[in-house]
Every structure is written in C-alpha cells, then in structure tokens.
C-alpha cells in the first residue's frame, strides 16, 4: 500500500493542510474590525463617485456571504446585494477583477478556522484588482488606479475594503499574479522553512498539478531536486512534464505504491502533501511519525519576501503560474460571483489544472 511504503521509507513529510485556528482573527481578520472612519472619499453623502476611468461606482454590489456553517459550499454561502463598503483611514477600496478559489474555502465555510466566528461572515481569501477609493493615511502610499492584490478575507465580492498594510502591489491585473498570493506563497514558504531541500534529493508532491502543487514542483526543481508528482489524469501528467516534474504519476492509471517501490526503492527524502483534507488517498493512519505541518497565516513574516521573489520570477517567465478559468468546463469560463459555486465544484471534482480563478466584470454596471 502506497501510504505504508511512504511511511517506512520517507525521511520527511510535511503537510500543507487547510486546517488550523485563528485564520480570520489572528491572521487577517483583525484588519477588518470596525474602526472610526476618516476617509477622504466619503460615500455616505454621495450616491456614487467617479473612479479613475470615469465609470461610476454603484452604491450597492454583490458579495458572497456565509450564512450557515457547512462544508457544502452551496448550502453555506448565499449571494447578497449589499452597500459598497467605505474605506477607513488606512484602507483601500478595491474593485476585484479576479478572485482565487482555494481548497480551504470549504474549511472556512464550515467554520473550522475559528469556531468563535459565527455567520454571517464574508467568504473568499484573495483578490486582485484596482484601487477605486482610499482613506487619508492610505493615500500616502497608494492612489486611485493602482493595481493591487491581497490575501485577506472577503474577496468574494465586487468591491472589498482592505487595509493598505495588507496590500501587495502588482505590475498589472493578471490572474497569474493572483496564483501567488496563497498557492505560490504556501509552496514557497513551506519548502523554504520546513523542506530543507538539497540538491539531488527526491521530493514527492501530491495534487502536483493543482493551484499549490504546481509551485511545489517548480520550487523543488529550482532546488535541483528530483521531483515526483501525483495527479489524476494524463492531461495533468502532460502539464507536469512541461513544468519540469521528473516523474508524474497518474494514480488513476498507475499503481502509486508499485511505482514508488519499483522506481524509488531507496525511498523519498521529502513528501509535500498538498491533498490532506481534500483527499483520502493517503489515510491519516498511515502518516509517518516524523512530519511537520504548515499553515500559511503562521508564517506571514516571510510573506513579503516570498511575494517579491515570486512576482519577479513570474514576470520574467521563470515561474509558470497556470490558471484554470473554467474554459474547458461545459458552462465555460468562470465569470461573475455566481460562478464561484461552479468553480468550487470544479476543484472538488479534482478537475482543475492549475489555480482555479474566477473573473469579475471589468466595470460593474451602475444602476444610478
Ligand atoms: N496550510 C496552508 O496554509 C494551505 C494553504 C493553501 C493550500 N493548502 C492545502 O493544499 C491543498 C491544495 O489546495 P489548493 O487550493 O491548491 O487546491 P488544488 O490543489 O488546486 O485542488 C485540489 C486538488 O486535490 C486533488 N485531490 C485529490 N483527492 C481529491 C479529492 N478527494 N477531492 C478533491 N480533490 C482531490 C485534485 O488533484 P488530482 O485529482 O490531480 O489529485 C484536486 O485538483 C488543500 O488541501 C489545501 O487545504 C494549505
């Protein structure tokens, strides 16, 4: 059995599970508590204002709200029409252009990150878009029209207020940059802080063609390791070859344990377990005793440096940032907040190749 083999031979395993406590409050939720507002653009006395492109910002918007705790995303989350939020003194109002889907979205809707947070609360962990409004303090570093991204709660909305200190500047509003905020950063920091990779080591990555796995494969290759990647289709295997994976294993057509026994009799040096809560292919009873867990919000001190390095590598083409915008699905591209449900289903059916991304309309129609 594959898991037993790995348990016996593997020297180090670490998990990047979507679990843990306090993601909302401890990591970034605290940025979203109500603070006295002193915004330079005050939406309270005007129905709308003009943004940098001259299109109006409506007084109301769509957003996805968790109204019931459930692992079933469709049951937990409802689409609501709410007022466009007003940025506080240190905040930016961002018009989201792309939002990222994470396997952890359903851990969040199930209330696993912080049991003290009760519905209703906002959904979505990451977005990329343009600044359309900002507070006085925030205007010291940002201006309307800046292209920015963020890792924080409440991104499944047409507009999100984000503290300026949580913002990552991006060269343009490309979905490829969005892939770095959670998925890229997780693989980068986990491998750097816990992987202890060395040239010539053998590294196995699970869900290797997914949002996070694609980066683990590439960073392990950059560390001159031999990389084995598991996935569920030949198409994904083909993609893994293009990003340097030495031995893609489609576990639906090949016996994972058999391949590892035959081709890696000396075992593996590191297993980057990117499936975890999402899968039962490695039962928890079979985990080796020596393992390390990684949870991104616990490593935010490494975040800025990781983002800067990845943005440079992504911009230069050194790092492939594959996005899955649903173009191959029967209903087509994931466009609009309504399609977030479909995008979550797509991921949980294991059909995604790369990071699942939903596009939001460039300009939200004003009803004014
Ligand atoms: N700890 C952290 O800070 C952190 C941060 C980010 C992500 N994560 C974790 O990393 C993992 C990957 O997250 P992601 O957002 O990048 O997702 P993803 O890898 O883009 O998508 C999930 C993938 O898991 C694989 N999978 C295997 N068994 C599955 C099953 N029974 N149901 C659904 N999918 C299954 C599928 O790939 P194949 O079909 O090819 O196997 C699927 O494409 C998740 O467990 C997530 O919680 C943790």
Automatic annotation (TrEMBL):
This is Enoyl reductase (ER) domain-containing protein. Residues 72-358 form the Enoyl reductase (ER) domain. Belongs to the zinc-containing alcohol dehydrogenase family. Quinone oxidoreductase subfamily. Signal peptide: none annotated. PROSITE patterns: QOR_ZETA_CRYSTAL (PS01162). GO terms for molecular function: oxidoreductase activity; zinc ion binding. Transmembrane segments: none annotated. Pfam families: ADH_N (PF08240), ADH_zinc_N (PF00107). One of its GO terms (cellular component) is mitochondrion.
């Amino acid at each position: 059995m594959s898991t037993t083999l790995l348990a016996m031979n593997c020297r180090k395993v670490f998990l990047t599970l979507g679990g843990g406590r306090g993601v909302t409050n401890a990591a970034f939720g605290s940025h979203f508590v109500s603070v006295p507002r002193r915004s330079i653009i005050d939406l309270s006395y005007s129905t709308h204002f003009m943004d940098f492109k001259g299109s109006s910002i409506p007084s109301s918007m769509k957003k996805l709200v968790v109204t019931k705790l459930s692992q079933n995303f469709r049951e937990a989350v409802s689409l609501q029409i709410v007022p466009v939020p007003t940025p506080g003194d240190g905040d930016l109002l961002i018009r989201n252009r792309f939002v990222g889907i994470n396997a952890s979205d359903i851990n969040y809707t199930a209330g696993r990150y912080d049991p003290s947070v009760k519905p209703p609360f906002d959904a979505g962990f990451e977005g990329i878009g343009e600044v359309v409004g900002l507070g006085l303090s925030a205007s010291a570093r940002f201006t309307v029209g800046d292209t920015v991204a963020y890792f924080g709660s409440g991104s499944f909305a047409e507009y999100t207020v984000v503290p300026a200190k949580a913002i990552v500047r991006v060269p343009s509003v490309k979905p490829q940059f969005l892939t770095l905020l959670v998925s890229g950063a997780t693989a980068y920091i986990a491998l750097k802080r816990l992987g202890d990779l060395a040239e010539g080591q053998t590294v196995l990555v699970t869900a290797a063609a997914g949002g996070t796995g694609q980066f683990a494969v590439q960073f392990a290759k950059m560390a001159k390791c031999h990389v084995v990647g598991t996935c569920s289709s030949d198409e994904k295997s083909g993609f893994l070859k293009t990003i340097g994976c030495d031995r893609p294993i489609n576990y639906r057509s090949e016996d994972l344990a058999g391949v590892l026994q035959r081709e890696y009799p000396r075992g593996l040096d590191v297993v980057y377990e990117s499936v975890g809560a999402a899968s039962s292919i490695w039962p928890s009873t079979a985990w080796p005793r020596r393992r390390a867990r990684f949870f991104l919000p616990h490593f935010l001190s490494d975040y800025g440096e990781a983002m800067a390095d990845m943005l440079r590598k992504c911009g230069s083409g050194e790092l492939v940032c594959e996005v899955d915008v649903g173009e191959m699905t029967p209903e087509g591209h994931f466009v609009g907040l309504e399609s977030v449900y479909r995008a979550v289903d797509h991921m949980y059916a294991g059909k995604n190749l790369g990071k699942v991304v939903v596009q939001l309309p460039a300009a939200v129609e004003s009803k004014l």
